[in-house]
Amino acid sequence: MNSNSMLKGSIQTIILKLLAHQEKMYGYEISQKVKEITNGQIILKEGALYPALHKLEADGFLETYTEVFENRVRKYYSLTKEGKKETALKLSDAKDFIANLQLLLNLKIAD
């Protein structure tokens, strides 16, 4: 199992965190940023990224607008006020989960 197969439940949190850090991003930019930050260890594929973006938008956490760049239309995503609140909640939940996972992974089991 690689990190991509463990990623599924974290995609929305990653997207929200990136958008909290960088005010607006388009889909391909998000995927490239994840790849860059993780030195290619995590790849967000279109089949996972865009459904997550659309769900976040439908839930009212993202707003979008389009811009033409070099004769191509780019759809930019940014956080709504509710999206900022959701980001804080998801980050808190993720940190708690990681802390508990660390406890389990570091557990010394007696024979």
UniProtKB/TrEMBL annotation:
Q: InterPro entries, alphabetically?
A: Metal_resp_DNA-bind_regulator, Tscrpt_reg_PadR_N, WH-like_DNA-bd_sf, WH_DNA-bd_sf
Q: List each copy of the Transcription regulator PadR N-terminal domain by range.
A: 15-87
Superkingdom of this protein's organism = Bacteria
Q: What is this protein called?
A: Helix-turn-helix transcriptional regulator
